[in-house]
Amino acid sequence: MRLKNFSLIAIVGATFLHSLPLSAQEWALDPGYDLPRNAAIKPAAVDDFAPLVRMPIAAPLFFGAEASESRILAEVAPEGDLTLELWLLDHVNNPVGALLSVGEAHLGYMTGRAAFGVQSTLNKQILPRRGYKSNWRHLVLTRSGPSLTLYVDGAAAATSVISPGTLQAGPIRLDAYLKNEPSMQVANLVQVVSVDPKALSALEVMERFTARTKLVDEGRIFANQMHFTQPPYLNTPSLTSMELSFEFDRAATSTIEVGTTEADLKVVGTQMSPARLHGARLKDLSPDTPYFYRVSGRDEAGNMISSGLLSFRTAPSPGRPFTFVAIGDTEARAHVNNAISQQIWPERPNLMLIAGDLTDGGSVERRFEWTHEYFRGMGPLFGRVPVVAAIGNGEQELKWFRHYHRQPEPENYYSLVYGDVEFFVLDSYLKYREKSDPGFRARQRAWLEQALSKSNAKWKIALHHHDTRTSDEDDYGNSWHSTSQHGDSEVQTDFVPLFERFGVDLVLFGHLHSYERSWPLRGNQVDIEKGVTYLQVGGAGGNLEDFAPNKPWFSRQTFRDHHYAAISVSDSALDIRVVDMSGRLRDQFQIKPANRAKN
Question: Which domains does the chain have, with CATH numbers?
Answer without folding.
Answer: 7-217 (2.60.120.200), 226-315 (2.60.40.10), 322-598 (3.60.21.10)
